[in-house]
Amino acid sequence: MSTGRPLPAGPHRTGRPAGRTYPGLAVELGSARTRVWVPGRGAVLDVPTVTFAGAGGASYPVRRGAIVDPEGAARMLHRLLAHRVPRGTRPLIALAVPVLGGVEHRAAALTALRVLRPRRVLTVPAARAAAIGAAAELAGPLLVVDVGAHLTEVSLLDDGAVVNAYRTLLGTSDIAAGTAHHDLVDAATGMVTDMFRTERTPLSAAALRRGVLLTGGGALRPETARALGERLRAPVRAVPSPHTAAVRGAATVLVSARARRSAACPPYGTRADDTPL
Is residue 206 situated within a structural domain? Predict the structure, then answer.
């Protein structure tokens, strides 16, 4: 998908000399694929998440949704993206992260992204990013099931904010390793059921009545939505192009953040709400 052309830079007033602009990148560091989206241009990278270190052969810096090798991830990002950022500029980055990745994931991601010398990094929960990428209505409760290659997350959103989430270290890649497709659906169903039983507010029930938003690479299989709907006895909708929904949503967050900010960017390493990490 790469073309070798420099990434386009969008205007951002920072008090620097007139004409200085900063590119914007939406990034998803997945266990199986690394995707980069540029607002106004679309996908510029969709490649396996793999790097190489000397004679050691291929190395996989992200496993089961966790960045296990930040330095390896940094080498990969430098190889794929450093030459695409216009010289003398520092990109604004929106990073889609697993909902339950925690502080450790964000810290490892920021370590890896440092090679791109970003002015600011926004981290966006993947469930929220996918809902935004699907142009879903965020007002009120929304249940998002994200079936990735190595990880499945079930998230309950309320007005766009994650209020509850479950995860299992199981994904579509496990089907090739012997896990049956119905086992993956059963795992997602079990997490939704557990959430429904333990949630002490009516949010989960309202979200289930509204219907489930299915995203991630697993949503590319029509039988996933059908089987999940049958087990939950609720409508299940697979989002358009579900494997890129999160990175597309992160790009939308990036555009909104740049539109809001006319002053200098805050320090390197911030969440989507611009509070320091």
Answer: yes
Q: Which two tokens stand for residue 160?
A: 């766009």
6-40 burial code (b ≥16 CB/10 A, e <16): ebebbebeeeeeeeeebbbbbbbbbbbbbbbbbbe
Measure the CA–CA gap between 58 and 246, rounded to whole angstroms: 26
DSSP summary character for residue 175? H
Looking at residue 96, the DSSP 8-state letter turns out to be E
The answer to whether residues 120 and 252 belong to one domain is: yes
Phi, psi of 96 (to 5 degrees): -80, 125
CATH of the domain at 201: 3.30.420.40
Q: What is the pLDDT of residue 215?
A: 96
For the chain, give the number of residues.
277
Cα 175 to Cα 7, 147, 178: the distances in Å are: 37, 12, 5
pLDDT digits (tens, 9 = 90+) for 102-155: 899 999 999 999 999 999 999 999 999 999 999 999 999 999 999 999 999 999
Q: Match 């993947």 to its residue by tokens.
A: 126
Cβ proximity of 35 and 45 under 8 Å? yes
Residues 254 and 121 in one domain: yes
Other Cβ atoms within 10 Å of 44 Cβ, number: 21
Per-residue burial over 187-204, b = 16 or more CB atoms within 10 Å of its CB, e = otherwise: bbbebbbebeeebeeebb
> Residue 174 and residue 198: Cα distance in Å, rounded?
28
pTM for the model: 0.83
Q: How far is 128 from 77, CA to CA, in rounded Å?
A: 24
pLDDT by residue (tens digit) across 244-256?
999 999 999 999 9
